Amino acid sequence: MTAPTLFIFNPTANNGQAARLAPLLQEALRQSAAPWEWAETQGRAHAVGLAQEAAQRGFKRVVALGGDGTVHEVLNGLMQVPAAQRPALAVVPIGTGNDFAHAVGAPRDPRAAVRWALQAPTRALDVGRVRDNNGRVEYWGNTFGVGFDAVVTIRSRRLALRGFLRYLVAVLQTIWHDHRPWSGHLRVDDQELTAEFLMLVLCNGPREGGGFHIAPHARPDDGLFHYLLVPGVSRGTMLRLLPEFLRGTQWRFDYIRGGAFRRLHLRTDRPMPIHLDGEIFAGPQDDVQQVTVELLPAALQVAYTPAD
Description:
The protein has 8 helices and 15 strands. By secondary structure, it is of the alpha+beta class. α1 links the parallel β1 and β2.
């Protein structure tokens, strides 16, 4: 008999709009022939424990029903399990940005995504691990942002908006209110560089924020991360870059720096805000001024349908 799949459902995804989809999703599951179980998160980080418990109970596949935050929690739970016992991950995108789901090719329609999550072939994808100067360790699957886009993430949590509009308004607020660059020293693999920057994004997938194409060529299965660094440009230039990020054409500007890497160390002149997959890892109050990021190649089996 096929091992059951555990569906971890976050009813608060997409500002609570996901809750109304539960009957539709469960009906789609009842129409399938595959065995499944359903678990609902009760609060922040609950999905981490549910994913770990799923491994202990012998589930072979765990599905995150939510947005990028739900995926991030489930991924962190799975990565704390020994590799030999680690279930595969799949996602049903019912959150705000759904950028991880986009990277792995999950269908946008929730019912189609349920069928896909049960049946899609898996592939071993890369995972990021970060350690800060306070000794904290966390994993990420799609993007890691320092500076500007982390502030955008913090600001977006205060907005009673949904979908891409939520991130767009937060971007405009950040350009106006939080325009102060960081001075940082980076070691990117074997290369050393010092830079003043407004924004540094590390990418395993191509986009973040529901539609900002930071690294259009990034793939989560190629054994490489990509980074993008925006220096201390003016507010006007940041506004000018906004449509470029939406199209993924920002690389045509000489002042945009970037490349591929497997290991990166960053030290900054003041505490840095950081997001991992759209979840706040550090704010200014956390006194994080150094981080080391490592790529863990082919670390997690994930339901994956590449676009090409």
